C-alpha cells in the first residue's frame, strides 16, 4: 500500500509539472498479425482473394502446363510405337533369315527343278539360288533355298541333312549369318505363346480342315485347325496349315507320332510352330488418327495432372501481378506438330506418320537441351564428283537420340534451364548404310567437318524406312556458328563417302533442340 501511494503521488507530481503526458488509450483498428512466438490462431487460414490479372495469369499457366503435359504424353506414345515398330522390323528380318536354308554337297548333274521337287513337301519355296561356275557351266555344288515359312526350313534341316540325293549325302543347315537360331526360335515361341501350336505340311489337296482335325484330335483337344488357303482358288488349300492344342503335351505327342505319317498317300511333315501364321503384325494397323491421338493424350494428361479448383474471375480488380523472375521465351516454344503419331514401321512413307494438329499456346516455355559426348577424330573421305547431284532423302518420323540405334559412343542427355547457344546444325544424308556404321564413323565425320568450323558434337542416328523395311542413317553435326554450317554444306554436298553421294543440308536448330531428328 505504501508503494502504491508513493507511485500515485509521483505520477500526479510529474503530471502537474508537465513532465509526463497521459494520452487516452486508442482501440485497435485493422488486421492483427501474430509475431514470432505467438500462439497459432484457432481459426483456419483464409486465402486472399486474387485480382483479375492474377486469375488470368493462373489460367494461362494452367493452359501452358496442360499443353506441356500433352506434349510429354504424345512423345511417350510416339516413342513406344517407334520401339514396337523397330522390334517388329527386326523380328521380320530374323524370320526372313529363319526361312533360308543352305544345301551343300549337291551332285553336279542335279538341277534346280530337282531341288524344288525334293524340298517342296516341307512347305512352299520362294527361291532356289544355285551358284554357277561360268568356266564349266555347272553349279558349284551348293545352293540356298528360301521358304515362305520358317517351319518348312526347320523341317528341311531336320529331315534332309545327310540324306542321300543324286548319289551324294546332302549337307543341310542354317546360313552362316544366323548362328543363334535356337535362341531366336525360343524367343519367338515364348513371345507369341506358340508352345501349343504345330505346323503340318504334306496334306493331300482333297483333305479338309475337318478331316485333319478328326485325325489330330486323338492327341488332345484342338483349339483350332487352319489350313492356308490358296490365293488363286479360295476353295483349295496349299497343302499345309497350323493346329493348336489346349496344352503343350498334346502338341509334343502329335509331333512325335504324326511326323512322316502316311495320310492319303502323302507323308505328313509335322513340327512345332515357330512364328504366328498371320505373321508379325505391324503397328500401322493400330495407329490412331491425329485427332484421336491428341484427344487421348489430352485425357491422359488430365488424369496425370493434379486436380485444381476452377476459380471465378473478378472483373473489378486492377491490382497488377508481379513479373516472374524468368521470362518465358516465346520463340523457343514448339507446337505439337513437332511430334508425330506413328502409323507404320515406323512410318508409312518416310513421312508416314500424320502430323498432329498444333494446340494453340499463349504462354510458352523453354525446352531442355540435350548433350552428347564429344566424338573421336580419325578417317578420310572420298573425293567429290561435282557432275552428279546426290539424292534428296525424304524425312521420317522423329526418333529421339536416347532411343535411336546409335553407332559409337552412347549419348547422354542433361536438362538445363538455360537456352541453347546460337549454333548451326548440319545433317548428312545418304552418307552410309547401317552395315557401314562402326565406332570410327563418328571420329571420321568430326575430323572432316573440323576443317569448316568448330564441331561441338556429332550424332549418328538410324531410323527405319518402311518402304524397304531397312534402316537409313543420318549424321548430325553441331557447329558453333551458322557460317560453319554454310561452309560445310558448300564443301560436302555432292561428295562421296564409302561409295555414296552425300546430301549435306542445314537442319532446323529448334527441331534439333527438341530431339526431333525426323526432318
From TrEMBL:
Keywords: mRNA processing, mRNA splicing, Nucleus, RNA-binding. GO terms for molecular function: RNA binding. The keyword Hydrolase does not apply. Pfam families: RRM_1. SMART domains: RRM, RRM_1. Residues 99-177, 196-275, 424-509 form the RRM domain. GO terms for biological process: alternative mRNA splicing, via spliceosome; mRNA splice site recognition; regulation of alternative mRNA splicing, via spliceosome. The keyword RNA-binding applies. Its main location: nucleus. This is Poly(U)-binding-splicing factor PUF60. It comes from Clonorchis sinensis (Chinese liver fluke).
